[in-house]
Amino acid sequence: MRLGAQLSQAHGFDVVIREAGSAGLSALQLFSRNPVGGQGKSLPPAGSLKPVLREAGIERLYIHAPYFVNPAAIDEAMVGRARVALKQEMRRAKRLSGDYVVLHPGHWQDKARREESLAAFVDTVAIMLEAPGRVLVENTAGQGRELGADFLELQQIFQGIGRTRRVGLMLDTAHAMAFGYPLSSRDDVERLLERVDENVGIERLQGIHLNDSLYPVGSRRDRHARLLSGCLGREALGALLRWCDASHCPLVLETPGRDTIQRQPDIGIIREVCQEESACVSPSTVFYPTASPPR
Ligand SMILES: [Zn+2]
């Protein structure tokens, strides 16, 4: 299984990559800059992290886009700023040898013009793709004015983007629960994956942000929690781990904490649940066997 985490790069990109590798992780998510604003600090030379990633055994590096821009803004100056920053983020990700830029669909400004906001987001993604690299659109909790919480809305976004292997989906389990998709049982996991397949296409699923949600299902409040401390069920966690293992879909922890030491409780729970799963379910009974193709 490819397990990863969002970690802080405060001590340097090479340092955090080695830290992830020593903790046994094989995927990693980083911000390339302060996600809430300010000047993006300078990056290491292009390609210099590639050997560091290889040596550390990090097979998938996600670069999370900053939050201070609204890629779905209707206001021209506002969306213009977002597009410049996000196209630059694609270049920053490439320089860091990142595989994907992970992006939230942004916020609607005027509810009556929600459709226009979605169209603006689709155009933003097209502009990002003028730079080399790949994008993952993340489902949201639907908090406040957030777009992209409902899978029908994500379907609309992906239809607008069109069929390209350069854009995929990042599924956040805390956001899915907060919006209203329960994840208590094995059936819940199966239903959610079927929904992903029906509305977006399971082959587009290129990563899962594995988080528990502090607030209840349907609360539309985005607060990540430690695994099994919120509304995520143990049975659902086992089913998700099993599915990710079978389909080689990387998991990225965004639970509270900034480093691998603070993430140990979650990593421990994953190991424990994995052991239970392999003890009680034979490989031939893996449900919903559609796997994402290797990248
Ligand atoms: Zn997330």
Automatic annotation (TrEMBL):
Any single GO BP term: base-excision repair
Cofactor: Zn(2+)
Swiss-Prot/TrEMBL keywords: DNA damage, DNA repair, Hydrolase, Metal-binding, Zinc
Listed transmembrane segments: none
Known EC number: 3.1.21.2
InterPro entries the record matches: AP_endonuc_2 (IPR001719), AP_endonuc_F2_Zn_BS (IPR018246), Xyl_isomerase-like_sf (IPR036237), Xyl_isomerase-like_TIM-brl (IPR013022)
Gene Ontology MF terms in the entry: deoxyribonuclease IV (phage-T4-induced) activity; DNA binding; DNA-(apurinic or apyrimidinic site) endonuclease activity; phosphoric diester hydrolase activity; zinc ion binding
Keyword rRNA-binding attributed: no
Domain Xylose isomerase-like TIM barrel residues, every copy: 18-265
Family: Belongs to the AP endonuclease 2 family.
PANTHER family: APURINIC-APYRIMIDINIC ENDONUCLEASE, ENDONUCLEASE IV ENDODEOXYRIBONUCLEASE IV
Entry protein name: Deoxyribonuclease IV
Species this chain originates from: Sulfobacillus harzensis
